Amino acid sequence: MDRVALRGVKARGHHGVFERERVEGQTFIVDVDMGLDTGPAAVGDDLGKTVHYGVVAEEVVAVVEGEPVDLIETLAQRIADTCLAHEAVREVEVVVHKPEAPITVPFDDVTITIKRSRA
């Protein structure tokens, strides 16, 4: 299986369990790694037979900027579902970074990583 990846897609969202997170929002960073067969696209030089990573990036931003959720686990699942809606994508790994998480000790990042595939 071939891989098409997006790294460091940034968007502002209002996700979290605390009121401050919902009101003020924060930056989320998303990495997406999609598994698909790029052979047919390469043979025919045909964008229609692969996944358009520019469209996927816009869709990821729309999910992050969209309806707030409490958990980044839920956000990651929504992003995975969006990626799997593309016909060529057979599996996806999504990493959601929450570098501004409300933690009281020094830290660099909080992430959730999920892997999903077509049933």
Provide the succession of SSEs. EHEHHHEE
Outline the biggest β-sheet.
4 strands, antiparallel
Structural class: alpha+beta
Secondary structure: number of strands? 4
| Rounded radius of gyration (Å) | 15 Å
- Strand content is 25-35%
Which regions are unreliable across 5 or more consecutive residues at pLDDT < 50? none
User: Helix fraction?
Assistant: 25-40%
Task: Give average pLDDT, whole number.
Answer: 97
- Describe the strand arrangement of the main beta sheet, using strand numbers: 1-2-3-4
Enumerate how many helices there are, as a single number: 4
Terminus-to-terminus distance? 16 Å
Global morphology: elongated
What is shown here, in short?
The chain is an alpha+beta fold and 119 residues long. It has four helices and four strands.
Question: How does this model look, in words?
Answer:
The chain is an alpha+beta fold and 119 residues long. Helix content is 32%, strand content 31%. Strands 1-2-3-4 form a four-stranded antiparallel β-sheet. The longest helix has 13 residues. The chain is elongated and about 50 Å long. The two termini are 16 Å apart.
Keywords, please?
119 residues, alpha+beta, 4 helices
Lay out the secondary structure.
Blueprint: E1 2-13, H1 19-24, E2 26-36, H2 39-44, H3 53-65, H4 72-84, E3 91-97, E4 111-117
Helix pairs in contact: 3-4
